[in-house]
Design brief:
The chain has about 170 residues and is mainly α. The chain has two domains: about 1-75; about 75-145. Helix content is about 60%, strand content about 0%. The chain contains eight helices and no strands. Helix 6 packs parallel to helix 8. The radius of gyration is 27 Å and the shape is extended.
C-alpha cells in the first residue's frame, strides 16, 4: 500500500477515480500516517472523503498517544504541553496550544502562561495569549473542561395585555 502511495506522488502518474477513492478509504481504515501526503494531495484536488480520512487518522493517533501516556503513567496534559512546546513545526505547536486550551480549559492556563512567556515563536505566543483570554472570558472552544458558555436564552416575548371587559372598552353613548 505504501509503495503504491509513494508511486502516485511521482509526476505524470494518473489513476482512475474509483481506485483513488479506494486508496483513500483504505488509508482511513488502516489509520496510515504514511498516507498523509497522498491524502493532502487528494484533499487539495477535491477528492471526496480525503478530509474525513485525514481527520480519522489524526483522531486515531491522538487517542493512541493519550492511551500510551496513561499506560506509561504520564498525565495526558503533560504530553499535550510537550507537543505545544516542542512540536516539529510552528503550525503544529500553535495547533497544540489550541487543542490544549479546548481540551483542558482552566487547567491549561499555567501551561499556556509558561508557553506565552518562553516560546520564541510569535504565532505560538499569540495563540497562547488568545486562549488564556478566551478561557478567562469563558469563550474558549468547549471540550471536556466545559470552558465554553452557552449563549443566554432569549427572553420570552411579552404578550400584549388582553382587554378587560368593562374597563378597557370605550364608553358608549346613550
Amino acid at each position: 500500500m505504501i509503495a503504491v502511495l509513494q508511486a502516485l506522488e511521482k509526476p505524470g502518474i494518473e489513476m482512475r477515480t474509483p481506485y483513488r477513492l479506494a486508496l483513500v478509504q483504505l488509508a482511513k481504515v488502516l489509520h496510515l500516517v504514511e498516507a498523509i501526503p497522498f491524502l493532502l494531495k487528494e484533499y487539495r484536488e477535491g477528492t471526496p472523503y480525503a478530509a474525513a480520512a485525514l481527520d480519522e487518522i489524526r483522531a486515531y493517533n491522538e487517542r493512541i498517544r493519550t492511551f500510551s501516556s496513561f499506560a506509561d503513567g504520564k498525565d495526558p496534559l503533560s504530553a499535550e504541553i510537550d507537543a505545544a512546546k516542542t512540536g516539529p513545526s510552528v503550525e503544529l505547536r500553535r495547533a497544540a496550544v489550541f487543542a490544549l486550551a479546548a481540551t483542558h480549559g482552566a487547567k491549561a492556563v499555567p501551561a499556556l502562561l509558561d508557553i506565552a512567556r518562553t516560546t520564541a515563536d510569535e504565532p505560538v505566543r499569540k495563540a497562547a495569549i488568545e486562549m488564556i483570554e478566551q478561557i478567562a472570558r469563558g469563550t474558549a472552544a468547549g471540550g471536556p473542561a466545559g470552558t465554553a458558555k452557552p449563549p443566554a436564552p432569549a427572553a420570552p416575548p411579552v404578550p400584549a395585555p388582553s382587554p378587560t371587559p368593562g374597563v378597557d372598552e370605550p364608553p358608549t353613548e346613550k
